[in-house]
What we know:
This protein is an alpha+beta fold. It is built from three helices and seven strands. A five-stranded antiparallel beta sheet has the order 1-2-3-6-7. A two-stranded antiparallel sheet has the order 4-5.
Amino acid sequence: MTMRPILIHPDPRLKKVCAPVGDISAELRKLADDMLQTMYEAPGIGLAAPQVGELKRLIVMDCVKDKDAAPQPMALFNPEVTWTSDEMNVYEEGCLSIPEQYADVERPAEVRVKWTDVDGKEHEEQFDGLWATCVQHEIDHLNGKLFIDYLGPLKRQMITRKMVKLKKERARASA
Length: 175
Ligand code: K1U
Ligand code: ZN
Protein backbone atom coordinates (compact mmCIF):
# COMPACT_ATOMS: atom_id res chain seq x y z
CA MET A 1 0.00 0.00 0.00
CA THR A 2 1.20 3.51 -0.80
CA MET A 3 0.41 6.76 0.95
CA ARG A 4 -0.86 9.34 -1.56
CA PRO A 5 -0.50 13.11 -1.10
CA ILE A 6 -3.84 14.80 -0.35
CA LEU A 7 -4.72 17.83 -2.51
CA ILE A 8 -5.42 21.05 -0.64
CA HIS A 9 -8.22 23.46 -1.64
CA PRO A 10 -8.18 25.47 -3.89
CA ASP A 11 -7.29 22.98 -6.62
CA PRO A 12 -9.22 22.64 -9.90
CA ARG A 13 -9.27 18.82 -9.50
CA LEU A 14 -11.42 19.21 -6.35
CA LYS A 15 -14.10 21.05 -8.38
CA LYS A 16 -14.55 18.40 -11.12
CA VAL A 17 -17.39 15.88 -11.51
CA CYS A 18 -15.70 12.46 -11.41
CA ALA A 19 -16.26 9.68 -13.95
CA PRO A 20 -17.96 6.35 -13.04
CA VAL A 21 -15.63 3.34 -12.94
CA GLY A 22 -16.19 0.23 -15.08
CA ASP A 23 -15.05 -3.28 -14.08
CA ILE A 24 -13.17 -3.35 -10.76
CA SER A 25 -9.58 -3.98 -11.92
CA ALA A 26 -6.52 -4.80 -9.81
CA GLU A 27 -5.45 -1.17 -10.35
CA LEU A 28 -8.73 0.13 -8.85
CA ARG A 29 -8.43 -2.27 -5.88
CA LYS A 30 -4.89 -0.93 -5.29
CA LEU A 31 -6.21 2.65 -5.44
CA ALA A 32 -8.86 1.75 -2.80
CA ASP A 33 -6.16 0.18 -0.55
CA ASP A 34 -3.88 3.21 -0.96
CA MET A 35 -6.77 5.56 -0.13
CA LEU A 36 -7.65 3.60 3.03
CA GLN A 37 -4.05 3.74 4.20
CA THR A 38 -3.85 7.47 3.39
CA MET A 39 -7.13 8.07 5.31
CA TYR A 40 -5.98 6.13 8.41
CA GLU A 41 -2.58 7.89 8.43
CA ALA A 42 -4.08 11.40 8.01
CA PRO A 43 -6.04 10.58 10.24
CA GLY A 44 -9.55 10.85 8.86
CA ILE A 45 -12.85 8.98 8.72
CA GLY A 46 -13.31 9.24 4.94
CA LEU A 47 -11.53 10.06 1.69
CA ALA A 48 -12.67 10.51 -1.92
CA ALA A 49 -10.54 9.68 -5.00
CA PRO A 50 -10.35 13.30 -6.29
CA GLN A 51 -8.64 14.27 -3.00
CA VAL A 52 -5.67 12.17 -4.19
CA GLY A 53 -5.95 13.52 -7.75
CA GLU A 54 -7.90 10.55 -9.23
CA LEU A 55 -11.07 11.79 -10.92
CA LYS A 56 -12.93 8.49 -10.39
CA ARG A 57 -16.14 7.70 -8.48
CA LEU A 58 -14.55 5.92 -5.50
CA ILE A 59 -14.78 6.74 -1.79
CA VAL A 60 -13.44 5.04 1.33
CA MET A 61 -14.67 5.39 4.92
CA ASP A 62 -14.27 4.05 8.44
CA CYS A 63 -16.37 5.96 10.96
CA VAL A 64 -15.57 3.70 13.95
CA LYS A 65 -14.17 6.23 16.42
CA ASP A 66 -13.72 3.89 19.42
CA LYS A 67 -10.03 2.88 19.41
CA ASP A 68 -10.87 -0.44 21.15
CA ALA A 69 -13.52 -1.40 18.56
CA ALA A 70 -12.75 -3.39 15.39
CA PRO A 71 -12.06 -1.20 12.35
CA GLN A 72 -14.74 -1.16 9.63
CA PRO A 73 -13.00 -0.12 6.40
CA MET A 74 -15.34 0.39 3.42
CA ALA A 75 -14.55 1.08 -0.25
CA LEU A 76 -17.53 2.19 -2.36
CA PHE A 77 -17.28 2.37 -6.17
CA ASN A 78 -19.92 4.41 -8.05
CA PRO A 79 -21.86 5.26 -4.83
CA GLU A 80 -25.35 6.69 -5.41
CA VAL A 81 -27.83 8.08 -2.89
CA THR A 82 -31.18 6.37 -3.54
CA TRP A 83 -33.16 7.82 -0.59
CA THR A 84 -32.78 10.61 1.97
CA SER A 85 -34.72 11.09 5.22
CA ASP A 86 -36.82 14.22 5.79
CA GLU A 87 -35.18 14.49 9.21
CA MET A 88 -32.05 16.62 9.09
CA ASN A 89 -28.91 16.56 11.23
CA VAL A 90 -26.22 19.18 11.89
CA TYR A 91 -22.59 18.07 12.29
CA GLU A 92 -19.42 20.13 12.63
CA GLU A 93 -17.55 18.88 9.55
CA GLY A 94 -13.87 18.98 8.65
CA CYS A 95 -12.08 18.02 5.45
CA LEU A 96 -8.60 16.62 4.84
CA SER A 97 -8.38 18.98 1.80
CA ILE A 98 -9.19 21.98 4.04
CA PRO A 99 -7.00 21.33 7.12
CA GLU A 100 -7.95 22.71 10.54
CA GLN A 101 -11.18 24.38 9.36
CA TYR A 102 -14.52 23.21 10.75
CA ALA A 103 -18.12 24.35 10.25
CA ASP A 104 -21.65 23.18 10.95
CA VAL A 105 -23.31 21.58 7.92
CA GLU A 106 -26.94 20.44 7.79
CA ARG A 107 -27.69 17.23 5.85
CA PRO A 108 -30.33 14.47 5.83
CA ALA A 109 -29.94 12.41 9.03
CA GLU A 110 -30.29 9.08 7.16
CA VAL A 111 -29.53 8.06 3.59
CA ARG A 112 -29.76 4.90 1.50
CA VAL A 113 -26.78 4.36 -0.77
CA LYS A 114 -26.08 1.78 -3.48
CA TRP A 115 -22.55 0.97 -4.62
CA THR A 116 -20.22 -1.67 -6.03
CA ASP A 117 -17.59 -3.22 -3.72
CA VAL A 118 -13.97 -4.26 -4.44
CA ASP A 119 -15.20 -7.71 -5.62
CA GLY A 120 -17.65 -6.15 -8.09
CA LYS A 121 -20.66 -7.07 -5.86
CA GLU A 122 -23.58 -4.61 -5.68
CA HIS A 123 -24.84 -3.38 -2.29
CA GLU A 124 -27.60 -1.10 -1.02
CA GLU A 125 -27.64 -0.05 2.64
CA GLN A 126 -29.03 2.61 4.95
CA PHE A 127 -26.57 4.84 6.86
CA ASP A 128 -27.25 6.97 9.94
CA GLY A 129 -25.30 9.03 12.46
CA LEU A 130 -21.70 9.90 11.52
CA TRP A 131 -21.73 7.30 8.70
CA ALA A 132 -24.60 9.18 6.99
CA THR A 133 -22.80 12.53 7.34
CA CYS A 134 -19.52 11.07 6.08
CA VAL A 135 -20.95 9.21 3.06
CA GLN A 136 -22.75 12.40 1.92
CA HIS A 137 -19.58 14.51 2.41
CA GLU A 138 -17.56 11.98 0.34
CA ILE A 139 -20.16 11.68 -2.47
CA ASP A 140 -20.17 15.51 -2.63
CA HIS A 141 -16.41 15.33 -3.36
CA LEU A 142 -17.20 13.13 -6.41
CA ASN A 143 -19.45 15.93 -7.68
CA GLY A 144 -16.86 18.69 -7.11
CA LYS A 145 -18.61 19.96 -3.97
CA LEU A 146 -16.84 20.83 -0.70
CA PHE A 147 -18.41 21.34 2.75
CA ILE A 148 -17.52 25.06 2.52
CA ASP A 149 -19.94 25.31 -0.45
CA TYR A 150 -22.76 25.01 2.15
CA LEU A 151 -21.49 28.14 3.97
CA GLY A 152 -22.16 31.80 3.20
CA PRO A 153 -19.83 33.54 0.70
CA LEU A 154 -17.90 35.51 3.37
CA LYS A 155 -17.07 32.47 5.52
CA ARG A 156 -16.18 30.46 2.39
CA GLN A 157 -13.91 33.24 1.10
CA MET A 158 -12.19 33.59 4.48
CA ILE A 159 -11.43 29.83 4.60
CA THR A 160 -10.24 29.82 0.96
CA ARG A 161 -7.84 32.72 1.69
CA LYS A 162 -6.43 30.80 4.67
CA MET A 163 -5.87 27.76 2.44
CA VAL A 164 -4.10 29.84 -0.26
CA LYS A 165 -1.78 31.16 2.48
CA LEU A 166 -1.21 27.64 3.87
CA LYS A 167 -0.33 26.30 0.39
CA LYS A 168 2.17 29.16 -0.17
CA GLU A 169 3.79 28.49 3.23
CA ARG A 170 4.03 24.74 2.51
CA ALA A 171 5.50 25.39 -0.98
CA ARG A 172 8.09 27.79 0.52
CA ALA A 173 8.98 25.29 3.27
CA SER A 174 9.58 22.47 0.77
CA ALA A 175 11.57 24.63 -1.73
O1 K1U B 1 -13.35 13.79 3.06
C1 K1U B 1 -12.55 14.17 3.90
O2 K1U B 1 -11.91 15.18 3.70
C2 K1U B 1 -12.34 13.41 5.17
C3 K1U B 1 -13.12 13.99 6.34
C4 K1U B 1 -14.47 13.29 6.41
C5 K1U B 1 -15.53 13.93 7.24
C6 K1U B 1 -15.29 14.47 8.48
C7 K1U B 1 -16.33 15.02 9.23
C8 K1U B 1 -17.59 15.01 8.73
C9 K1U B 1 -17.83 14.50 7.49
C10 K1U B 1 -16.81 13.94 6.75
C11 K1U B 1 -12.32 13.76 7.60
O3 K1U B 1 -12.07 12.65 7.97
S1 K1U B 1 -11.78 15.15 8.49
C12 K1U B 1 -10.96 14.44 9.91
C13 K1U B 1 -11.89 13.87 10.92
O4 K1U B 1 -13.09 14.08 10.87
C14 K1U B 1 -11.36 13.02 12.01
C15 K1U B 1 -10.02 12.88 12.22
C16 K1U B 1 -9.55 12.08 13.25
C17 K1U B 1 -10.42 11.43 14.07
C18 K1U B 1 -11.77 11.58 13.90
C19 K1U B 1 -12.24 12.38 12.86
ZN1 ZN C 1 -13.56 16.30 2.49
